[in-house]
Write a structure and sequence with these properties.
2 copies of one chain form a homodimer. Chain A is α/β, with parallel strands linked by helices and 416 residues long. Helix content of chain A is 42%, strand content 21%. Chain A folds into 2 domains: 242 residues, Aldehyde Dehydrogenase, Chain A, domain 1, CATH 3.40.605; 144 residues, 3-Layer(aba) Sandwich (Aldehyde Dehydrogenase, Chain A, domain 2), CATH 3.40.309.10. Chain A is built from 14 helices and 16 strands. In chain A, the strands form 4 sheets. In chain A, strands 10-9-11-8-7-12-13 form a 7-stranded parallel beta sheet. Chain A has a 4-stranded parallel beta sheet with strand order 5-4-3-6, sandwiched between helices. Chains A, B: Belongs to the gamma-glutamyl phosphate reductase family.
Chain lengths: 416, 416
């Protein structure tokens, strides 16, 4: 194990008790100051970002990724506002969620506490640095951030500024730390830092998440990939179905809550697909359709097995005609990544069966999957969208960054 | 990857949707039948257990472990009663815990669902087979059980009987499966079966748990080891302190919620330790004391660094005199395994600081640590005691074996 990761882990663990016991005003004061320090350092951040942008061709980074990497004064302002929004959220730490008495007269309460030390491995977007750091800090956790090499200078400068703020508030700078070595070797060591990390959250491509899943012995919250579907039932309002499919596919195809495949009940295929074809064309969406559906799309291509498995994250939609609700549910449970799934129907029974039987973090009736989001759900924040079943499932707000402990008040009880 | 583990994983996954959607009466009927089938098969179970007992010397199993391994008609009856108690518990599956409306008019509910497929790796005690299987079944989960080689025939026969019950109830026998190869190699494969297992719960020795923690890429719930403390404050009721220490140490030393070390405030050492010495002697507890405390124990031995780190699980108590509450809290947070910790005090401030600052799943004021137990806490069941912070912390009842999903009712909402 490299000294780097062990040192970061030890330093975090050393201050984690202090962090977990900070009062809400202490945390909020520091968060507001972080926003202020960011605003006071715009030229410094832009200069660091410029160094990353200059290196981008060397790393063979695609233009869409360069857009994610690029910071502007406006984007830095958004980061500062984001931190202020986190300061404004209700602090879950310290809340005793329930309290009860046992027959022996013990009073037991379940109290919300910080997790301890959180590792975040992420790619490209430097705004994850301030997002993740502020959410972890608000919940009394230490965070160790490991960004990609392509945003190295931006991330490091942002963490420097956050640490300067902590010191200015008489708080330990080890609350927010940065992994200054972006090698795969050190990332793998971070994934196995079981003595110091309470949880590891990867944020990025499917490739990153799969690598973490296969390598990490630290507890992981798997986030992100969404191979999502809309099923257009035989009892669907077809106008509504067109709107939902277009929204879920084309409003922002690059995000994890967009859809990749639609399943259309055979009874409505003949009415629905021509309506949809017009709108898909308007939105420049490429169609990969099965043998039944292909006839409605003059420039569509025939779908292959790979299409059902792929998270395109692009203006591409796979289309399959199914003969029953069961066939739709089976297709979804076989190919989906347990993220977000929707049915469009006016059948009460179909809606209930879909809600019960589809296995996903968020299951919708008559709405776009694009709502799977911590802000849209009303959590006021989002550290990611969990696609696993342990600890947290679906959009994760502050609560997902906490644990609990039992506090027990007795008056001399011993066990018989 | 061996075919064995992949086959078990695939078979479980195939039936897991059916399991998750069983109604409460369907599950309870099957559970009651399992108890009945156990009672009808006592001679068959005892015969299998006899085979294990005959092999025990070959595996070099200690007498205390042989007692854990041995089944009797009475112990089998206890297993049957245990299953009936699980049948009587409230079923958490299907409950919608909260439901709210968003500004866009979506109605979002958080519904309790099964985790899916649970792996259990355990040692020695065959009763874990029926305990774990019944709790997983009650919560709509498939379970794959991997017991130790020392209880192979007992475990296999118990699973055979549970599977016969499932078939008699027209339910898939793949809901409860047994790993028939007890090699380390296959256990390691189970720990990495990320495609099929939603969670892995180890139950057994610290060695087993450490191995799982270091090897598993499947999400793990760490259970068990308890290096626990009682701190006797300067403001303690000393009679109460003696009773609590004796109970926590000597009532049942082999369990994880017993204590291993006590910390005594220097101001009360002179009054407290002689009182304690008498009672420890009565209970045949060996003392490993620091240089200050050793004078009160004529046949005590001097404590070493190793004593503070050791979970004795035996009639041995380490004793250290501390000069302040801070020193006690620092000792505990440094050496403990985050399980159960207690303070004896009449100081309000000391009690509050101890509850807030000690990092453990269960923190007690004026009570024995022996109450850390799902039954004592009122959960009606226990699958283990989690010493990690993710997903579940402390005694785990049925709720720890569940996940949630968001169900969303819309009427055509799309995202702007």
């Amino acid at each position: 194990m490299s000294n780097l990761m062990t040192n970061l882990g030890q330093a975090a663990q050393k201050v984690s008790r202090q962090l977990g016991n900070l009062s809400t005003p202490e945390k909020n004061t520091a968060l507001l100051k972080m926003a202020e320090f960011l605003r006071n350092n715009v030229p410094r951040i832009l200069a660091a970002n410029q160094k990353d942008l200059e290196k981008a061709p060397e790393y063979g980074i695609r233009p869409t990724m360069i857009d994610r990497l690029k910071l502007t004064a406006e984007r830095i302002e958004d980061m500062a506002i984001g931190i202020e929004q986190v300061a404004a959220l209700t602090d879950p730490i310290g809340e005793v969620e329930k309290m009860w008495q046992t027959p022996e007269g013990l009073t037991i309460g379940q109290k919300r506490v910080a997790l301890g030390v959180i590792g975040i491995i992420f790619e490209s977007r430097p705004n994850v640095t301030t997002d993740a750091a502020s959410l972890c800090f608000k919940t009394g956790n230490c965070v160790i951030l490991r960004g990609g090499k392509e945003a190295f200078y931006s991330n490091q400068t942002l963490v420097d500024i956050l640490q300067e703020t902590l010191l200015a508030c008489d708080l330990p700078k080890e609350a927010i730390q940065f992994v200054s070595d972006t090698s795969h070797e050190v990332a793998n060591q971070m994934m196995q830092l079981t003595d110091y990390l309470d949880v590891l959250i990867p944020r990025g491509s499917d490739r990153l998440i799969q690598r973490v899943k296969q390598t990490a012995t630290v507890p992981v919250i798997e986030t992100g990939t969404g191979n999502n579907h809309v099923y257009v039932d035989h009892a669907a309002d077809l106008e509504m179905a067109v709107q939902i499919v277009i929204n879920a596919k084309a409003q922002r195809p690059s995000v994890c809550n967009a859809i990749e495949t639609i399943l259309v009940h055979t009874e409505v295929a003949d009415d629905f697909l021509p309506l949809l074809a017009v709108e898909l064309k308007k939105n420049a969406v490429e169609v990969h359709a099965d043998e039944t559906a292909i006839q409605y799309f003059s420039d569509g291509q025939l779908a292959t097995e790979a299409d059902w498995q792929t998270e395109f994250l692009d203006y591409i939609l796979a289309i399959r005609v199914v003969s029953s609700l069961d066939e739709a549910i089976n297709h979804i449970n076989h190919y989906n990544t347990k993220h977000s799934e929707a049915i469009v129907t006016d059948s009460y029974q179909a809606s209930q069966r879909f809600l019960n039987e589809v296995d996903a973090a968020a299951v919708y009736v008559n709405a776009s999957t694009r709502f799977t989001d911590g802000f849209m759900f009303g959590f006021g924040a989002e550290i990611g969208i969990s696609t696993q079943k342990l600890h947290a499932r679906g959009p994760m707000g502050l609560l997902a960054l906490t644990s609990s402990k039992y506090i027990i008040y007795g008056n001399g009880q011993i066990r018989e």
